[in-house]
Design goal:
The protein has 274 residues and is mainly α. Helices cover 63% and strands 0% of the residues. The protein has ten helices and no strands.
């Protein structure tokens, strides 16, 4: 088991490096096209946050991603062996594009409610790490606390496994959420105009990361804005130009941010009931 985890960590790190180069190249090009000479100045301004994001990214690749990969496998095997699936996998036999569209739509519905839970009292201390980036870029997507990463994977995969989606559909859903997630975290001011109520735009998600405004409690979907519209959490007054981040004092180092949720939970448990 130990050798399996070590081998998985090495493979995960190599994949992480490749994905970083791919995404970095694409978003560097986007930044140059949209911002021109100001792209370099913007990168320098965000340098401190970018360094922290990269540290957490490689920490995740080495120590957390292999555990999550094992967790995903255990969840799928557990659902299959215990016959817990609400829908048998054989039911998903239609055209590939239909299954793809279904898994992304259903996956976003599940993650919408999971994301709302992450903004509640007991899950927020871990999720606050993601929101602590004050210079939101595509790399903000990788700023997640290990606890948050594990709960996210467990909830999302369990929901889709219970609905009987095949393995390739789970992978496809994860790829869409990852790359579209990078895009909506990028510093792009687009609102999508008349489509802003259907698809999550970068401006819509930026309002979700706003500090001390109404939008910080809104816009929980990743792909389909229709869920926020349907459940009353949609908030896009226009391009978001307000300060980002959180009011929580999380510290600015990787160590302080990794320890913050445990300290917050400890304080909450010691606090006498009202």
């Amino acid at each position: 088991m130990l050798w399996r985890l070590v081998s998985s960590a090495a493979g995960s790190l190599w994949v992480a490096v490749q994905l970083l180069i791919l995404s970095g190249s694409v978003f560097a090009l986007v930044a140059v096209v949209l911002k021109g000479d100001q792209a370099i100045a913007a990168a320098r301004h965000a340098a401190r946050e970018l360094r922290l994001n990269l540290k957490l990214y490689f920490f995740d690749a080495l120590f957390i991603a292999p555990v999550i990969a094992l967790l995903v496998q255990l969840v799928r095997e557990g659902v299959a062996r215990l016959n817990l699936a609400l829908i048998d996998e054989s039911w998903w036999t239609g055209p590939g594009w239909v299954i793809f569209a279904a898994v992304v739509f259903v996956g976003d519905f599940c993650s919408y409610w999971r994301h709302r839970l992450e903004h509640t009292r007991w899950l927020w201390p871990a999720h606050a790490i993601h929101h602590s980036d004050t210079q939101m870029t595509w790399l903000t997507l990788v700023r997640f606390h290990p606890v948050n990463r594990v709960t996210t994977a467990a909830v999302d995969i369990t929901c889709l496994a219970l609905l009987g989606f095949p393995a390739w559909a789970l992978v496809a859903n994860e790829l869409v959420r990852h790359y579209y997630g990078e895009f909506i975290h990028a510093g792009v001011p687009w609102t999508y105009g008349p489509l802003k109520g259907l698809i999550v735009s970068p401006a819509m998600h930026r309002w979700h990361h706003a500090r001390d405004v109404v939008g910080s409690g809104s816009n929980f979907a990743t792909v389909f804005a229709v869920f926020d519209r349907a459940f009353g959490t949609w908030y896009v007054p226009g391009p978001c130009n307000v300060p980002l981040g959180v009011t929580d004092d999380l510290g600015s180092s990787m160590t302080s941010q990794l320890l913050y949720p445990f300290a917050a939970w400890g304080r909450a448990l010691r606090r006498p009931p009202a």
